[in-house]
Amino acid sequence: MVTTILDCYTDEPAGLGVPPYLGTYPRYLAGYLKKPEYITIDDLRFLKYYKLNEKKKEINHKTNIKIYNLTKNIKRINQIIEKTNTLFVILGIHTPGKYLSAIPGTLKEVSNLIKDMRCEKILVGPAFFGTQLEGGKLFEKNNLKIFNKIKHFEFTYQEIAEYAIEGAKIVKQIPDLRIIEIETGKGCPRREGCSFCTEPIKNKLEFRKKEDIINEIKRLYNLGCRNFRLGKQSDLYAHPEVIELLSEIRKSCPEIEVLHIDNVNPKSVLSKRGHEITKAIVKYCTPGNVAAFGIESFDPVVYKENNLNCTAEEAYKAIKIINKYGAKRGENGMPSFLPGINILFGLKGESKETHKKNMYWLKKILKSNLLLRRINIRQVTIFKGTPLYRKCKNKFIKKNKKHYWKWRDEIRKEIDLKMLKRLVPKGTILNSVKAEIYDGNTTFARQIGTYPLIIGIKKRIPLKKYYSITIKEHMLRSVIGEIKRENKI
Ligand code: SF4
Q1: Rounded to an integer, what distance in angstroms lies between the CA atom of residue 139 and that of residue 131?
Q2: Residue 71 pLDDT more than 90?
Q3: How many angstroms does the Cα of residue 36 sit away from the middle of ligand 1?
Q4: For residue 414, pLDDT beyond 90
Q5: Using CA atoms, how far apart are residues 246 and 229, in angstroms rounded to an integer?
Q6: What are the φ/ψ torsions at residue 402 (nearest 5 degrees)?
Q7: 18 alpha carbon to ligand 1 midpoint, in Å?
Q8: What percent of the chain lies above the pLDDT cut of 70?
Q9: Is 363's pLDDT higher than 90?
Q10: Does ligand 1 come within 6 angstroms of the Cβ of 431?
């Protein structure tokens, strides 16, 4: 009996599993299934679309990111497919983004790719609740008949303590570097969640034991992993032992190269422990770190209508605190720890006033000499079961869509560009920058970590190597750089 995991990648409000990230779903599932085969959607595309033709790894002078993330199993792909009795398809995008070197699978695509496989097919992952690769749309409605089952694995944290250790070994099947997404908790600490969010529907609030998290990281470290993100949680600051957790990770894994975090509720930064936790993050994590603040809107009407997690004033105070401790530049050339902001279009109550309020507060942040690592602007994806779906679905997206390009453009030009110039002024040197893809004669590169800055280098340099780069010019959200030297890593 051969069981195979097909990883089509996942992206949720709390948790990322799109390469270069390796999500928790395939690791836990591999632990549960004991000895599965592990393949990615890139493997399957390489076989089905391109008949394993190496020349297709670049198309029209661009790296073909549809097949960038092959596993070592690509050599045996035909054999694996033939022998598979049960196929677990991990899929689900709830917070679609732009991915530099991967394209997650959609239900439509994967259904086509697996339709002639003669085996039991089980759909798992966030897609259980729906999936959508494009923002501003309802979840993808596809015929699910191709699957024999759609399953939501609700592993307890006791089970995960075992499965995470057992399943860690799938990293051996992945030839490229991965940032390992680590789970510290699930559910939302707020009694009622934000209107658009699927996390409170999916999970009750629970934190993972510190010892279990450390054991998992140690196991992955012993398997050779050096890059980690504590990203699978809705608010890292809410973990009761977060300071001890960070210090013990560093003690037990001294040669860790990247230790970053993800989601933080700005309100938690303002709490009693907020300053201490922020200092600990600066001390124990590595530079270039970002607290992703799901602010979503600075408009008090939208805040109220959607039960968002903090007011504009609270967000501003939290941004100040993170800057106070984290703005100093670290050894990789980036500030140690900065806030990142998420803005969401299409929420209930959104109007022209919303954009004015967003601009007012963003300009205030800029004028106060504060740093933001990045502003993510998305259109909301609407999922069944959320208050937003029940109350108004895509009514506000339809109403305001005509403004979105202008609103976004204004934020990019008036805030992002100025912020970027402050963040990495011309002449700044960024170290450990990995060359990832080609687009014509340009190479795109970035550091390993959470929300790394994308750097365009105006020539083709060997991919998957590391460089020190001097910043030469600023675009709206990315920079242009020149090689200073190659790093020996
Ligand atoms: S704070 Fe809002 S966005 Fe974050 S997990 Fe809770 S409900 Fe979701």
Answers
A1: 5
A2: yes
A3: 33
A4: yes
A5: 11
A6: -60, -20
A7: 21
A8: 97
A9: yes
A10: no
Q: How far away, in angstroms, is 188 Cα from ligand 1 center?
A: 6
Q: Which atom of ligand 1 is nearest to the CA of 190?
A: 6
Q: Of 234, 237, 239, which is best to mutate to test ligand 1, by the most ligand atoms within 8 angstroms of its C-beta?
A: 234
Of 41, 49, 29, nearest in space to 131 by CA: 41
pLDDT, tens digit, 9 for 90 and up, residues 8-24: 999 988 889 999 999 99
Confidence of residue 141 (pLDDT cuts 50, 70, 90): low
268 lines ligand 1 (CB under 6 A): no
Query: Could you tell me if the CB of 346 is within 6 A of ligand 1?
Result: no
pLDDT of residue 95: 77
pTM across the whole model:
0.95
| Residues shown for the chain | 489
Distance CA 453, CA 419 (A): 13
Tokens of 148: 């024999």
Please give the distance, rounded to the nearest whole angstrom, from the Cα atom of residue 197 to the centre of ligand 1: 6
How much distance in Å is there from the Cα of 194 to the middle of ligand 1?
A: 5
Q: Cα angle at 246 between 225 and 311, to 5 degrees? A: 115
* Dist CA 106 CA 7 (whole Å): 12
Q: Using one digit for the tens of pLDDT, what is the confidence trace for 326-360?
A: 999 999 999 999 999 999 999 999 999 999 999 99
- pLDDT tens profile 277-330: 999 999 999 999 999 999 999 999 999 999 999 999 999 999 999 999 999 999
Beta strands at 2-12 and 37-40: parallel, antiparallel or unpaired: parallel
Q: Do 479 and 453 contact (CB within 8 A), yes or no?
A: yes
Ligand 1 pocket test, candidate residues 129, 190, 203, 207, most atoms within 8 A of CB:
190
